[in-house]
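Format notes (please read before filing issues)

Several people have asked whether sequences and structure tokens are stored in separate files. They are not. Every record keeps both together, in the order shown below: the sequence lines, then the token lines. Line labels are part of the format and must not be stripped during preprocessing.
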Amino acid sequence: MKTISESAKEMLPRLIEIRRDLHRHPELSCKEYRTTRLISEHLQKLGIEVIPWGGETGVVGLLRGEETGPVIGLRADIDALPIQEQNDCEYRSTVDGVMHACGHDAHTAWLLGAAELLAARRHELKGSVKFIFQPAEELADGAKTMMSKNVLENPRVDVIFGAHNTPNLPAGQVGLKDGPLMANSINIAITISGKGGHGSAPHKTHDPIMAAAAIIQGLQTIVSRRVDPLEPCVISFGSIHGGQANNVIPEVVELTGTVRTFQPALTDELAVMMRELIDHIAIAHGVETEFVFRQVIPAVINTPGLAAWVRAPLAEIFGEEGIVRPQPVMGAEDFAFFLESVPGAFLFVGVGNTEKGIVNQWHNAKFDVDESSLALGAGGLAQIAFDWLKR
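Then the structure lines:
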């Protein structure tokens, strides 16, 4: 039989067809009905059991090998984004205002390809492979929901792997590292209540706008002066709302933002430090505040030691020269919920191509992928599963 790498290269035209079909018909989080049907039909044609998991969208497939043994999980996310595509290509989105601008169409094609590669070798598998096609990653809700439905049980998954595309690496490369890879995601909201009045008489008000400005600037000193400079930390605000007229100081200002870190201990310290700073600024400005600090997604922290093991199967697909150590990113990924339950690792698969102009970042209206990466992503996931069950 041909190697997995050789088979993956031969199936590239089919993977491109699958990816383009998905790209033309993107579906938002929790509405991935067509995508779910396509995945289920594809798995059933391969003789892979589709297991009801309790959700309306998303698919779980189980490939049982010839021998009993461990169970490995492979995961891909399937949802799109509320973005109007600006690419001028024959496979552009046909759904107004919806686009696969994060490459989940490629992720789905990778995992379907891996399923086909492994199904053709089921007689060599000394265990089982559970394929998890997860909905609603963009809402940071899909993995958590699947975990609540015990998707890693019956049979119990012993180890799990997943991958995300990145335009920051060229197609042909894969990013692999132990430990922290992607940050946690924390939602913050601050409501500042003061005393409104006429803009010409600020001394008779307790201005929540001035307090908001002081809080926004003051919180940045936590990052620059109270957190170790070698410890990644981000505090960013994405919205500020207050007032309706140019000459009226409002009663209330509302701020929302995000905090990103890698270490749980630092996360706990930040909640306390931010609360203290906000309280003291509020006293100085004569206003009252409400502060919400809520972790939405934990950090993606690859299980120590797995990267060293994964290197060998990835070298079969990408070559040793194609494996690079990526910089951790402050973006979040709800694959982290799976890693809280079982050992595993998350990879970055390069999809960039400067010569073709494929350089735009995730969530950009002109985001695209170098489709040669489809065979590599599928082959990489399949080789990992094949080698894990053989070890």
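For reference, the curators noted about this record: The mean pLDDT is 97. DSSP finds ten helices and 16 strands in the chain.
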